[in-house]
Amino acid sequence: MSESSNKIYDLIVIGAGPAGLAAAVEAWNKGLKKILVVERAKEAGGILMQCIHNGFGLHYFKEELTGPEYAERFIDMAGKTGIEIRLDTMVLEITSDKYVHIVNTIHGYEILQGKTIVLAMGCRERTRGAIGIPGTRPAGIYTAGTAQRLLNIEGYMPGKRILILGSGDIGLIMARRLTLEGAQVLACVELLPYSGGLTRNIVQCLYDFDIPLYLSHTITEIKGERRVSGAVVMKLDEHRKPIPGTEIDFDCDTILLSVGLIPENELTKKAAITMDPRTKGAVVYENRETSVPGIFACGNAVHVHDLVDFVTEEGQLAGAGAANYVLAGEKDTEQVVELTNGNDVGYTVPQHIRPGKMENSVGVYFRVRSVHKEPSVISIVSGSKELARLKRDHLAPGEMERISLTKEQIRSATGKISISIEGGSK
Amino acid sequence: MKQLICIVCPKGCHLSVDEEKDFAVSGNSCKRGETYGKMEIKDPQRIVTSTVAVTGSVYVRCPVKTDKTISKRLMFEAMKTLDRITVPAPIRLGQIIVKNVCNTGANFIATRDIR
Lengths: 426, 115
Hints:
The structure holds two protein chains of two kinds.
Chain A: E1 8-14, H1 18-29, E2 35-38, E3 54-56, E4 65-66, H2 67-79, E5 84-86, E6 90-94, E7 99-104, E8 108-119, E9 123-125, H3 128-131, E10 141-143, H4 144-154, E11 161-165, H5 169-180, E12 184-189, H6 199-206, E13 213-214, E14 217-223, E15 230-235, E16 248-250, E17 254-257, E18 261-263, H7 266-270, E19 275-276, E20 281-282, E21 295-297, H8 308-328, E22 337-341, E23 345-349, E24 352-353, E25 361-368, E26 376-382, E27 385-392, E28 401-406, H9 407-411, E29 417-422
Parallel strand pairs in A: 1-2, 1-8, 2-5, 8-21, 10-17, 11-12, 11-17, 12-13, 22-29
Antiparallel strand pairs in A: 3-4, 6-7, 7-8, 9-18, 14-15, 15-16, 19-20, 22-24, 23-25, 25-28, 26-27, 26-29
Helix pairs in contact in A: 1-2, 1-8, 4-5, 5-6
Chain B: E1 2-5, E2 14-18, E3 24-26, H1 31-42, E4 45-46, E5 49-55, E6 61-66, E7 70-71, H2 75-80, E8 86-88, E9 96-98, E10 108-110
Parallel strand pairs in B: 5-8
Antiparallel strand pairs in B: 1-2, 2-3, 4-7, 5-6, 6-10, 9-10
């Protein structure tokens, strides 16, 4: 490659959604000047562009924005820098020595090199195949996000009589959106005894329109030859087995699936980056560096977030980490502290903290495994010593928790740090 | 006494609002929660978001929102004002699409640029 010297970037960001844009802008502000963002869609902004509802930015901008408005703020910020964004371009592969293989219709196939890489590919929706619903395979079954794109971007109504399986946020948002557009949303059906969505979405998207929420229920059959003509919903016992005699017939023409999101990490795995089976994202350090030095990851590619504000925060961490890697080089880090799940904690991000590399404090995200309606305590323990106790009035798996640990607390750890939940009736 | 869940932030405080004591709110953990609780029982308000048809662009829909909250019971009526509208590109973020929606004083404005 004769031109290779021109093609060495300080930073190559994979994905121009909120995580990737925040990482690129932060790295620019911290002093990196040769930054490329590669995006497979025809415009930047990622999934925010189809999330036309409001409620974004309360933490970061201290105001309520719609998805496109939130995205445009970061697109504008990036536009005022020298950051290069290549749209309509697919990344085929990244390697652990930081070569990025890309292809588009203008430049064809290219291999670029980055001194650092930030992975910000986001996540994708689980489909019917992932949950194995029995029945025929007619038209009219969509993931909630696909229906959202059809309605908000392409301008098509996906159906008239709609049944929603799963109570994830996108499904709830679509229940309201479709109702306002004149469809009849018959019900939202949730396998678990509690909703996976944010409370405000349950209230504003279901309660506001008297849409029933069936907890501990699932679809046991989809009917229809060419188009969905109905579905059977059944109540589940404590082992999640359908209870005979509880069948409810729904006369629907459309079924939306809002049954979870999976971080998108084909590129990550190919680069032999260590993955966390709990988050289905890369294992990361406090600055979102992965197991491969100089490759960072952030946003929904690392773990699925509820709020874009925290995706932005994580993108900035990764961007700052990348800038520091290029400008200051690798520092010796004598101590690495591992975070582990204690009682009722499903995962933590980051999974490892290096006090020698962190700022004065580090934010730790985690999810609980069950709903705690009564006040409970987050206990942070290392060895026999409790480093911190934090009270919470309400904890739920659908609401990511964020705690802050100081450098002093991390330094004082003997071995691993465990985060667990005490009390709070379930 | 009415029970409701606060939606001002993701915390979701469980509020009680006493209509007989001038809509006194308890269970909130911030001032905004108190305002929300009072309002939600007296006259619930919502921002309405939707899209309008676009001509002269590769984009066929432009997302819009009301620039302030409107009464919850007017949501469907507000949606109707967008039904027959087609807006020519280019459209600027913040551009007024429908003025004074249902006499609420709120406007539908574009929430992105359309080139």
